[in-house]
Amino acid sequence: MSLVKVLIVDDHRLFRAGVRAELGNAVEVVGEAEDVESAVAEIARLQPDVVLLDVHMPGGGGQEVLRRVLGSGAQVRFLALSVSDAADDVIGVIRGGARGYVTKTISGRELADAIRRVAEGDAVFSPRLAGFVLDAFASTEAPPIDPELDSLTQREREVLRLIARGYAYKEIARELFISVKTVETHVSSVLRKLQLSNRHELSRWANARRLV
Amino acid sequence: MADRQTLRDAPTPSPEDNPGYPRLTRPVEGRLVAGVAQGAAEQLRLDPVVLRLTFVLLTMANGLGAVAYAALWLFTPQREHEGPPPSRDWSQLAAFGAIAFALLAIGWLTGSPGSPNQSITAWPVAVAGIGALILWQQADPNRRQRWMRGASSGAGKNRVRTVLGMALVVIGAIGVLAAEGGLAQARNALLFTAVVVGGLILIATPWLAGLWKELRQERRERIRQEERAEMAAHVHDSVLHTLTLIQRNAHDSREVSRLARAQERELRNWLYQPKQDADATLAAAVRRVAAEEEDAHGVPIEVVCVGDRPLDPQLSAILQAARQAMVNAAKYSESPVVSVYAEAEPEEITIFVRDRGKGFDLDAVPADRMGIRQSIIGRMERHGGTARIRTEPGEGTEVMLTMKLETQ
């Protein structure tokens, strides 16, 4: 399999250089962009497999990039990478179409791994995002409008808990006696619910709680 | 302090900083009653005795002095004073009391100055005067200047309006005078009074509106400046301080990363966390414990919390056990990072502390090692909870703490 083509979008030059160095030869970094405009242009020009997207940027941030690129029907995949801990930012980019969220403290090896996963169409949840999702779906004050989309299955909940506890997918598979592929299926299913659920509590919760 | 000043670097000097015109305050030194006369005298650059005599005379005339004094007392802030309050000059106070008493006696004997009729007509004027006085002394000198400037420039710009208003006032006044002849013309008098009032409103409206707008704008500006000052103070106390420490410890990479982590955590809390009391909820308490151990041992502790509940004594055992588990992981596991996951459900609390360090053989732990047996397992069992430890050499360690909640 050829190397995954990656575009790094972040408004800090030093950070882009750091990520590039950390990724090394694990992926092929085809370009960089520093704001919404150049990100949209570079994605159209370079056709990367995965875009590493900063959440906070001048000109509307990562959500604006997602809206413009995915809105035009492009097939590129996004992985959000941010220092932000605000739940509404995180839930915002995921609902905007990013296939995962990792914090900037992630190691180079883990990041390369996450990029490969996203390139293959899987979802990537950091422990923190898993915690956010559990919290959002746990609030049961309102009855779900669409039971399929608005609640998590027992298995999905277990998988998310293990992610939140700091387990890698391989360890989760071993723990639950399932294959790594099945873990990925569960995570992708949670991602789909997170993106499609109209559960108003998701947005309300994200705005009101701002929990880490 | 010097660098904090430059950080704030306010674009316009705030009125309070203007040294020439202090705002009216009541000093503690040299006061006789509440320091009103002393303060006013300082601002007007008069001898306080003059003002005190004025207050006494006005009080004897129709009570006005006392009312004015009380109003000023109420609306003037006391000047900050350090140390014990100095004692009052009682002899001077007695002298003023004697003067007041003498005046009262004369007034009563001659029956003229303090007569009820006179004070009744004087009251409305007195109230208006006191109101103006309060307004005036509340304003700082810069604002006063702006008021005056605003009034004159407003009049200059709207010359037509001013002239028209003036004309109306004059016509009205002539009308009132003309109408005063007979009661039959009371209607006319009323009409002209209305014209006078209309004219006055016409003159004053733009000025009042401008004043109102300016006051609101100034308030907004002040709020913004306060926020900016708070931000600057925070950045100074935390971030700049940490950066200095990092430079000083540049040779010690462990200390540098510890400092950076602690600062990052603190800044994140400040930016993203709702203001909460660390002793009020479980999630906040878990985060605080993790922060303390992270600082103490220099190993990053990542915390994820799901759900929350108010902290009660029931939960202190699980918190202490979790702390011990974090200490063990940070001190002995050699893991680069420790993960903590706390979940609050309606019936139970679970906390997981996990590291990816070297692990150990649980059966080989000597019986006298208190950390795990007593502080974690024993403590949880004594309080009706459970603790499970999963570890193997080379596989890292996970401590799982569960506490069922007594539902009332």
UniProtKB/TrEMBL annotation, chain A:
Residues 145-210 form the HTH luxR-type domain. Residues 5-119 form the Response regulatory domain. CDD domains: LuxR_C_like, REC_NarL-like. GO terms for biological process: phosphorelay signal transduction system; regulation of DNA-templated transcription. One of its GO terms (molecular function) is DNA binding. The modification 4-aspartylphosphate is found at D54. SUPFAM superfamilies: C-terminal effector domain of the bipartite response regulators, CheY-like. Keywords: DNA-binding, Phosphoprotein, Transcription, Transcription regulation. Pfam families: GerE, Response_reg. This is DNA-binding response regulator. It comes from Sinosporangium siamense. The lineage of its organism: Bacteria, Bacillati, Actinomycetota, Actinomycetes, Streptosporangiales.
From TrEMBL, chain B:
The chain crosses the membrane at residues 49-72, 93-110, 122-139, 160-179, 191-212. Gene3D superfamilies: Histidine kinase-like ATPase, C-terminal domain. It comes from the Bacteria. This is Histidine kinase. SUPFAM superfamilies: ATPase domain of HSP90 chaperone/DNA topoisomerase II/histidine kinase. Residues 318-406 form the Histidine kinase/HSP90-like ATPase domain. The keyword Nucleotide-binding does not apply. Residues 1-25 are annotated as: Disordered. Pfam families: HATPase_c, PspC. One of its GO terms (molecular function) is kinase activity. Keywords: Kinase, Membrane, Transferase, Transmembrane, Transmembrane helix, Two-component regulatory system. The keyword Iron-sulfur does not apply. PANTHER family: NITRATE/NITRITE SENSOR PROTEIN NARX-RELATED, OXYGEN SENSOR HISTIDINE KINASE NREB.
